[in-house]
Amino acid sequence: MRILGIDPGYAILGWGVLDMIGNRFSVVDYGAVTTDAGVEMPLRLQHLYQELSAIIEEYRPQVASIEELFFNNNAKTAIMVGQARGVAVLACVNGGLEVNEYTPLQIKQALVGYGRADKKQVQAMVKAILNLKEVPKPDDTADAVAAAICHGHSAGNRMRALKLK
């Protein structure tokens, strides 16, 4: 199974593509799509959509794992991140991907075993699970890779449960 993990954002959208064979992951590629603060929001969203669509076309993932939003105190920021997240979902659906959504708590639970783990713990597990020399940078990229790992674990658990029935 090829998984595209996405950490949505309008300034930085992290992404990671992993292959999962059995219960093992291998890195295909990862990175971040960035937009400039001085650019109008509609053009930033267009750029995110175009870049993510190109990533989907290049790597041909079967599923997407997107981090759900958590609400912060700044409503304007939450709305703007929500717009970027909607663009990411649209790019995935238009690319023919099954879209799976996970809360930050679910992602932390899947990687660290504790839903209140801090960012450093999650990053250390991303590095360890994928046998990387360094944590993917920026943090948004590491978060996207974590979302992909979360889906791999979740999908694997669902498949095992189906076999038990």
Structural write-up:
- It is built from five helices and five strands, in the order βββαβαβααα.
- Strands 3-2-1-4-5 form a five-stranded mixed beta sheet.
- It is an alpha/beta fold and 165 residues long.
- The radius of gyration is 15 Å and the shape is globular.
- A hairpin with a 2-residue loop joins strand 2 and strand 3.
- Helix 1 packs parallel to helix 2 and helix 4 packs across helix 5.
- The mean pLDDT is 91.
Throw out a few tags for this protein.
165 residues; alpha/beta; five-stranded mixed sheet; 5 helices; 22% strand
Count every helix, treating DSSP H or I runs of 4 or more residues as helices.
5
Q: H/E series, N to C?
A: EEEHEHEHHH
Main sheet characteristics? 5 strands, mixed
* SSE-based structural type: alpha/beta
Number of E strands: 5
What characteristic shape results from the CA principal axes? globular
Q: How much helical structure, as a percent, in the residues? A: 40-55%
Roughly what is the average pLDDT, rounded to an integer?
91
C-alpha termini separation:
22 Å
Radius of gyration: 15 Å
Strands side by side in the biggest sheet: 3-2-1-4-5
Low-pLDDT stretches are: none
Strand content: 15-25%
